[in-house]
Amino acid sequence: MNPLQPSPYLLDCQGLSVTFRIDGRDFKAVNNVSFQLARGEVLGVVGESGCGKSMMALAQLNLVPEPGYVSGGRILFQDQDLRAKTERQMQAIRGNRISMIFQEPMTSLNPVFRIGRQVAEVFLKHQNISRKEAGELTLQALEDVGIPAPHKCVNDYPHQLSGGMRQRVMIAMAIGCNPDILIADEATTALDVTIQAQILELMKSIVNRFDMSILFITHDLGLVAELCDRVVVMYAGKIVETATVTDLFDNPVHPYTDRLLKSIPKIDSPVDELTIIPGRVPNLTELARSFCPFEPRCLISSEVCRNVSPELQKAEKDHYVSCHHYGEATS
Questions:
Q1: Which of 91, 214, 224, 281 is the most exposed place for a label (fewest CB within 10 A)?
Q2: 86-113 pLDDT, tens per residue?
Q3: 184/220 Cα distance (integer angstroms)
Q4: Bridge partner residues of 21 (DSSP)
């Protein structure tokens, strides 16, 4: 894209790479990833653990932990490159314009401070208001996410709340300043299915009420089908397929996506054995090889897959795939 031409998207991530330097060698955890997020859209990012989903998300806010660093690409937020921002400028954006919900709220909340103080800190950090006004906004934020008796909750410590309530507190902190983008990194993984459903409904209402965009990172394809508009499938640090939710579930064209969907048990189709993907996700040291990273686990690989890295290409309208043999049957 011409750098002088404004992007039509709220977030436009172009060619993002995240590299880790280990023992003097560089390994890419995220490799040339590009995606776009429109206002009011929910974009799902799926893949097995270790595929680079979380590193890609952390890079949006310049939070990649050492020895990792963003080694390439641009992250355009409302046509401003976040990579060019200073740390002070990023502090004004984090929690205010772009917020993030992490997987385990118990490790994200400070165990020695009351809930009210921690939520109020978000408003005091980003808004020029008094502590009294911050307290009033805190009560409103807790009420907005469905916490009963917020007047009592503000005096509780994190350990006094259930996992679902702690996650609601994290969401209250994330949406308190009405950000443009909410990044949810495995936000429901540690919760039981009943609480998961409640959090999912809460996120749906957030999109509708606040016209907020959500980058929804998960390994649960069921949640993606329920919440998302479009899906990005990642494997070994790369995007292997991207499409609308309907297209992806109706017509998966990458062998990895196809096997992922077939591995989900269906209540109306009893089977003796579950479909599995043989092998394992490659580690960082194995990603330096140039061929298709899924080749060792793929059922339809050929000589070209072992020698040439596939590029993301258009399979059909709004449906892109990175595979030399896309669309071929895998079973």
A1: 91
A2: 999 999 999 899 999 887 766 789 999 9
A3: 13
A4: 26
Alpha-carbon distance of 18 to 284, in angstroms, equals 11
CB atoms inside a 10 Å sphere around CB 47: 25
List C-alpha distances in Å: 56 to 62, 71, 183, 248, 267: 10, 12, 11, 21, 34
Angstrom distance (rounded) from CA 331 to CA 322:
19
Q: What is the assigned CATH class of domain 11-107+180-321?
A: alpha beta
The secondary element (H helix, E strand) that includes residue 246 is helix 245-250
CB 199 within 8 A of CB 167: yes
Q: Which of 5-9, 84-88, 238-242 has the lowest mean pLDDT?
A: 5-9
268-310, pLDDT tens digit by residue?
Answer: 777 777 788 888 888 777 765 668 889 989 989 899 998 888 9
Phi, psi dihedral angles at 234 (to 5 degrees): -110, 145
Alpha-carbon gap, residue 212 to 208, rounded angstroms: 8
The Cα 233–Cα 245 span in angstroms is 11
Q: Tell me how far CA of residue 267 lies from CA of 192, 259, 270, 299, in angstroms.
A: 19, 18, 7, 26
Tokens matching residue 102: 């992490």
Measured from the Cβ of residue 111, the count of other Cβ atoms closer than 10 Å reads 9
Place of tokens 């436009």: 12
**Beta-strand (E) ranges in the chain?**
11-22, 25-37, 42-46, 68-77, 80-81, 98-101, 181-185, 213-217, 230-235, 238-244, 313-316, 319-321
The phi, psi pair for 310, rounded to 5°, reads: -75, 145
Strands 181-185 and 98-101, by their bridges, are: parallel
Per-domain residue ranges of the chain: 11-107+180-321
Rama region for 23: left / alpha / beta (φ>0; ψ in -120 to 50; rest) = left
| C-alpha angle 283-57-178 in degrees, rounded to nearest 5 | 165
